[in-house]
Amino acid sequence: PPVPERRSRPVRTFKPIDGSSSALKGGPGISSHTCEDKKAQEELCFSCNSSDYSDDDFSECSFDSAVASSSTFIYDEKNQEVELIEPYECIEVFPRFLKFLYGCHVVLNRENTLPVLVLADKYNVADLRQVCIRHAVKEIIPKLQLKEVFHVWFQYATKCYHKALISACVQALAGRMDDIMSSDEWEQEWTNLDQEQLVEFLCSSDLRIKDEFDLFRAVERWLDAPGHPERRESLEVRLKVLLQHVRFPMMAPEQLCEVEMSKLVHQYPHLFVTLLLQAYKFHCLPLTGRAANKDFRTSNYLLRNYTALGWNHRVVIRGFHELAKNCELTSRFQTRASAYPQTVWDWELKIFPKGATNFDEFRAVLQANLILDQCRPIEFYISLVDNDQILRAVAGRKNFTKSRYTADTEIEKAVALEELNTPDSELLCGDNVMLQIMIRPVQ
């Protein structure tokens, strides 16, 4: 239905459950309609007369454009009445919404933030939308139970494609990703994910999982979910989308061989050949060769937070700009050892994000964490990354012994401290520095 071109100040009287009422004042000549708190009649009414007002009378928002953006309203041309149909939860917070429109002020809490965000989305109030998302990301999602994050916030964020909200939800869920993919408790949630929601998880490097092979098996289970036969009807189309986000080079060679035995590979070999070939090529090269190859810089070569014992480690330094000069950060990790029977090597990666007393450089030092009975000739490959690619990388070799148990990675040759300190630096992911290191015995 048509919407009047004039702007007018709405007046709304809200009658809560206890029977008391409160009204928002408007311009002259405005009549008001009472919004009864009845769930069966979930509607709000605005009325206006024919008086016209200038743009200054409604500087924060164009009421008619807001109504026009909504598909749930009824316009009575005879009485010049616009009736807005709102969910019950949104009726509860509508006074806050109007207060923001008139006065740029809103008080948010855990209960009202999502309904206010729904209204901000519906009426396209960009400033209020940003306020709600920022509050949810910082104050609400980190404190919620994971089931509520998944069923409420993640579902809404992905339907409306609020990227910051999606990232916050994925990061909150990432620490339990092994359970979400494999446990009986989360089976329904995993199998009922939309394809776009699954892709959001596959794109994340924050997932804490055993290894990439487990993630591939979980994707197979999603495709083969009994309750979703439509996925098998368009299997090839879905595979084209999903496989580009599976990081085959991060699988061990023996796991790649198991992937080749999958029925999906036999059914659609043309979708896997290039991906598996690149993964085998990655494993064939020494670490120095990997660092020099520009083909190995895409998101497929980024580490996740793998828990299985391997040859790599991922480090995230949060709040880079808040770090003090001379601070030293230590990340301890273990790798396999080139020994039989199977043992582990303990390592420390000492990071000086903003230099130290005797140098002004971003520096990372690799240290063997135990007194060595035998030499450890290894090669290392350390890189600075973001969510999409490897940005800078260096590689080298070092023979660790009892007397020489540290090695400067010389990453400062690839990463200048001035670049990191630049506002909106391209080397930072938000305000975080992300590093990954791979270690391998020299052959």
Description of the structure:
27% of the residues are buried. It is globular and about 90 Å long. It has 443 residues and is α+β, with helices and mostly antiparallel strands. The protein has helices spanning 63-68, 88-103, 113-122, 126-140, 146-160, 163-174, 177-182, 187-191, 195-202, 212-223, 230-233, 235-243, 253-260, 263-267, 269-284, 287-292, 417-421, and strands spanning 12-14, 22-23, 33-35, 43-47, 73-76, 81-85, 208-209, 305-306, 312-317, 329-336, 344-352, 363-368, 376-385, 390-400, 406-408, 433-441. Residues 1-71 have low confidence and may be disordered. α2 (88-103) crosses α3 (113-122). The protein is 36% helix and 20% strand. A 4-stranded antiparallel β-sheet has the order 9-16-13-14.
Write the layout of secondary structure elements.
Elements: E1 12-14, E2 22-23, E3 33-35, E4 43-47, H1 63-68, E5 73-76, E6 81-85, H2 88-103, H3 113-122, H4 126-140, H5 146-160, H6 163-174, H7 177-182, H8 187-191, H9 195-202, E7 208-209, H10 212-223, H11 230-233, H12 235-243, H13 253-260, H14 263-267, H15 269-284, H16 287-292, E8 305-306, E9 312-317, E10 329-336, E11 344-352, E12 363-368, E13 376-385, E14 390-400, E15 406-408, H17 417-421, E16 433-441
Parallel strand pairs: 1-3, 7-8
Antiparallel strand pairs: 1-2, 4-6, 5-6, 9-16, 10-11, 11-12, 12-15, 13-14, 13-16
